[in-house]
Amino acid sequence: MNFKVGDYVTRNSYNNDIVFIIIDIKEDIAILKGFNLRLIADSYLSDLVICNEDERGDDFVDSLELDVDINEDRGESEYFYLPPRILHLDGDNDYLDKCLKFYKKNRVMAFGKTISEKDLDRKIGNLLEDIQPDILIITGHDSYNKKNNDIHDMKNYKNSLNFVKAVKQARKFENSHDKLLIIAGACQSNYEELIKAGADFASSPKRVNIHALDPAIIATTLS
After folding, report:
1. So what's the pLDDT on residue 74?
2. Phi and psi, residue 99, nearest 5°
3. Which is more confidently placed, 86 or 52?
C-alpha cells in the first residue's frame, strides 16, 4: 500500500491501539506522531494500516467541555470572577493548537507559544515577564528508555532534563507556589525530578503516555 506524509495510520503489531499521523517517510520506515497522544514513534510501512476518519476522534476537542462551576447562576452583582492567566509553552505546534481550542471552548484566558524543548530554559524568562501568568504549562515531547531500567538516570529521558531546567528558571522568576502554579512534563517524563524542580503537577508518575490535552485539562480545572 502506498502511504504519504499526512496519512492517519495505526500499527498492526500494537493491535492498532494508537492513531498516528505520518510526518516523514525514509525508505521503508515511517516517522509517526500521535494524533492525540504526545508521542513520536517509527514503524515499517508494512506494519501500518490507514485509519478511517470515523475512528480518529477528530471532534474530541469540540466534544470535551469541563463541568466547572464558576457561579454563573449567582449573578454578577454578588460575585466578581477574574480568570487567571495561563501561559502554555509547547514543543509541538499541533498539540498547542488543540489545547488553545480547548481553552477557548472553556472560556479561560490562555497564551500559547511553540518553543523547542531544548530552548525552553533560555526563552522562558522573557515570556514570564511579558505575560505575568498565574498558571504555567511546560510540555511537548518526551520519552523514557526502558532498556537501561533506571528511572532515576536523567540520561534515559529524551527531554526531561530540558523540562527540569525550564521549571527551575520559572521558579527563579516566581518562587511562590501560591502565585505561580506550574504544570510540567510530557509522555513518560521524570515525574520526581519535575516535582523537585518546583512543578506543582507533573507527568508521568508511572512513565506512561499522556493525552495531548492532559496539561490543558489540569490548567483549566485549576483556573
Report:
1. 47
2. -70, -40
3. 86
Q: What is the four-CA torsion angle of 42, 43, 44, 50, rounded to 10 degrees?
A: -120
For residue 128, give the nearest of 156, 168, 92, 100 by alpha carbon.
168
Average per-residue pLDDT for the chain: 90
Other beta carbons within 10 angstroms of residue 67's beta carbon come to 4
- Contact, 183 vs 219, CB < 8 A? yes
Q: H or E stretch including 20?
A: strand 20-26
pTM as predicted: 0.84
- How far, in Å, CA of 208 to CA of 206, rounded? 6
Cα–Cα dist 202/55, whole Å: 30
Pairing of strands 48-50, 8-11: antiparallel
Residue 12: C-alpha distances to residues 7, 42, 220 (Å)? 15, 13, 35
CA–CA dist 73, 70 (Å, integer): 8
For residue 80, the model assigns a pLDDT of 62
Query: Which residues have C-beta within 8 Å of that of residue 79, sequence separation ≥ 6?
Result: 71
CA distance 206 to 204: 5
* Calpha distance 180→7 (Å, rounded): 40
Residue 157 and residue 148: Cα distance in Å, rounded?
Answer: 11
What are the tens digits of pLDDT across the range 119-146?
Answer: 999 999 999 999 999 999 999 999 999 8
